[in-house]
Design brief:
Elements lengths: L7 H4 L5 E3 H7 L4 H10 L7 E3 L2 E5 H10 L15
Helix pairs in contact: 2-3
């Protein structure tokens, strides 16, 4: 017999933002470097300041990770500017 009730995992949505620390670790950097880059406005993707905390939109981080290889080179050619 098959259940038509969605499982807990199927109904759970991914977060729209993650912590700066989590994003930094996904990019291979430590806590200090992630916060230093965020304060300087040089973090590799968009960072939101919400109160006293930093948050990184998952969409922008995913786009960055989809376009960058592990060695830092671009996996796909960048769009040509015209």
């Amino acid at each position: 017999m098959t259940s038509t009730t969605p499982t807990h995992r199927a109904t759970q949505q991914e977060p729209e933002v993650i912590s700066l620390l989590t994003a930094g670790r996904l990019l291979g950097m430590g806590r200090t470097k992630a916060y230093r880059l965020a304060r300087a406005g040089e973090f590799p993707c968009r960072v939101l300041r919400i109160g006293g905390r930093y948050a990184v939109p998952v969409r922008g981080l995913r786009a960055l990770l989809d376009h960058t290889c592990a060695d830092g080179t671009r996996s796909r050619p960048a769009p040509e500017e015209g």
